[in-house]
Amino acid sequence: MECHVYYEGDDDPDKCTARRLEKFDKATLYRSMGQVPYGVVLNPHAEQALSPADLEEGLGTLVALDCSWESAEAASFEMRGVHRALPFLVAANPINYGRPFRLTTVEALAGACCIFDEWERAEDLLEPFRWGETFLTLNEEPLRRYSECTDSSDVVAVQEDYLADEE
């Protein structure tokens, strides 16, 4: 599973998970949106949830946007590819620990890998982060259930179970 990141550079470089992924040769960073390859674009504004069915559509390529949550507007995600939103997952990073949907770039990429049943790739991506294993532990059940779905509507049904439990 190839991981690519469009890097906007508007966050704290010391806390930037995308830069650390690049440092450890686990993802390729691009500073120009036009250079980003075609793939499954992880986009929180997408109308369809990511599902195992999307693996073939993205040709084994995941694309994420690394930016501050304050600037993560829909226009920021205008990259070529199949746009999909991640379903309910909880952050394990120190800034947003326990907050749903507030994932770092590495958490988003790892979550997508798990949904595509690429658990070893997810563990490899998270390895440079002391809280990386915690992300997989916190989200183990939903990630397993999402990876067993056939399509986006199944994923949404599983997500609705978790959102109902949250309330």
From TrEMBL:
The keyword Kinase does not apply. It catalyses: an N(1)-methylpseudouridine in rRNA + S-adenosyl-L-methionine = N(1)-methyl-N(3)-[(3S)-3-amino-3-carboxypropyl]pseudouridine in rRNA + S-methyl-5'-thioadenosine + H(+). It is an enzyme of class 2 (transferase). The keyword rRNA processing applies. It holds the Pfam family Ribo_biogen_C. Residues 40-163 form the 16S/18S rRNA aminocarboxypropyltransferase Tsr3 C-terminal domain. S-adenosyl-L-methionine binds at T17, L65, L86, T105. Keywords: Cytoplasm, Ribosome biogenesis, rRNA processing, S-adenosyl-L-methionine, Transferase. Coiled coil: none annotated. It is found in: Cytoplasm. Residues 3-31 form the RNase L inhibitor RLI-like possible metal-binding domain. One of its GO terms (molecular function) is rRNA small subunit aminocarboxypropyltransferase activity. GO terms for cellular component: cytoplasm. Its EC number is 2.5.1.157. One of its GO terms (biological process) is enzyme-directed rRNA pseudouridine synthesis. HAMAP family: TSR3 (MF_01116). Aminocarboxypropyltransferase that catalyzes the aminocarboxypropyl transfer on pseudouridine corresponding to position 914 in M.jannaschii 16S rRNA. It constitutes the last step in biosynthesis of the hypermodified N1-methyl-N3-(3-amino-3-carboxypropyl) pseudouridine (m1acp3-Psi). Belongs to the TDD superfamily. TSR3 family. This is 16S rRNA aminocarboxypropyltransferase. It comes from Natrinema zhouii.
